[in-house]
Amino acid sequence: xxxxxxxxxxxxxxxxxxxxxxxxxxxxxxxxxxxxxxxxxxxxxxxxxxxxxxxxxxxxxxxxxxxxxxxxxxxxxxxxxxxxxxxxxxxxxxxxxxxxxxxxxxxxxxxxxxxxxxxxxxxxxxxxxxxxxxxxxxxxxxxxxxxxxxxxxxxxx
Length: 157
Prior knowledge:
The chain has about 160 residues and is an alpha+beta fold.
C-alpha cells in the first residue's frame, strides 16, 4: 500500500483557552512531550478556513467538547501571536517556514467538564485555577493568554 505524503501544516493556528466562569482552566498534556501542558491548539486545515471553524474543530478533536453546546460561549479575542516554530516541529511545515501566526480564543463552559482526549495527541488533563494553569503552561504565549482571562472574561454576576 502506497501512502501519499502528509500535506504541510498551514502556519496559522488557534489557541483556545477553555475555562469556567470562575476562571478554572483546562490544560492538556502533550503525548509526544510529557510535561508539556497547554490549552487546545491546532492549525487551519487550509489558509482560507475561518478562524472560528478551526477553533471549534480543534476543541472537538482534542477534548470532545462541542463549542455550540448549551451554556458554552466561544469568543474570538481578536488577538494574534506570531512566534518562531520550535525546531522539533518545523519538519511539519513547508521548507523555509519558521514562524506561525496564532489566533487567540476563549471558550467558557459552565463548569469543569470531563474531556475525551485524543491519545495520539494528549495523555492527561487537569482543571486548575487560572494562575496555577498559567504557571504550568510550557508555552509563554499560552501562559500569557491564560493570564489575560480576568480581563477578557470579567466576573459575571
